[in-house]
Amino acid sequence: MKKSGSQKSKSPSQLIDARIKELGDWRGKVLSRLRTLVKEADPEVVEEWKWRGVPVWSHDGLICTGESYKNVVKMTFAKGAALKDPSGLFNSSLDGKTRRAIDVHEGEKIDEEALRILVRAAVTLNKSQPKANPRNGNRPHGR
């Protein structure tokens, strides 16, 4: 995404809108649909814009990111390795100890209900984690 002086004045949601429009092809449509599914799964989700242009969805911690590449739209779940995935949506980053990702290629159909369930599970996991305490080095209480 091109950087502009006005980028700092835009909200994360506006920046994500701009990314989708900028892509202008199947990747924009997929990213838009993934975004909609995340919002349907968790109406309280917070949209963020991090790491020089990555759409991020959070609720009591990072849920997932939505990255676009030449041949794939990648949805990376921050704590994906800790989530049950009975529908087998995760198809990338499977060897990692923490993250798991879903790569969507052009023309692939997304199991929308399974994705909503996965997003809800990620939110539930985030809510179950102890909150960080800035007074003791951002570690959860008692550790």
Provide keyphrases for this structure:
two-stranded antiparallel ribbon, 143 residues, alpha+beta, disordered N terminus, 31% helix, Aspartate Aminotransferase, domain 1, globular, 3 helices, 5-stranded antiparallel sheet
Structural class, judged by helices and strands? alpha+beta
Distance from N terminus to C terminus (CA atoms, Å) equals 41 Å
| CATH architecture name | Alpha-Beta Complex
Shape: globular
β-strand percent reads: 15-25%
Widest sheet, order of strands: 1-2-3-4-5
Largest sheet: 5 strands, antiparallel
State Rg: 16 Å
Poorly predicted tracts of residues: 1-5
Oligomer: single chain
The total of helices stands at 3
CATH topology: Aspartate Aminotransferase, domain 1
The number of distinct structural domains comes to 1
CATH class: Alpha Beta
Sum this structure up briefly.
The chain has helices at 12-23, 26-41, 112-128; strands at 46-50, 54-58, 62-68, 73-77, 100-104, 132-133, 139-140. It has 143 residues and is of the alpha+beta class.
Written description of the protein model:
This protein is an alpha+beta fold. It has a single domain (12-125), classed as Alpha-Beta Complex (Aspartate Aminotransferase, domain 1), CATH 3.90.1150.200. Helices cover 31% and strands 22% of the residues. The chain is built from three helices and seven strands; from the N terminus they run H-H-E-E-E-E-E-H-E-E. It has helices at residues 12-23, 26-41, 112-128; strands at 46-50, 54-58, 62-68, 73-77, 100-104, 132-133, 139-140. It has a five-stranded antiparallel sheet. Strands 6-7 form a two-stranded antiparallel ribbon. The N and C termini lie far apart (41 Å).
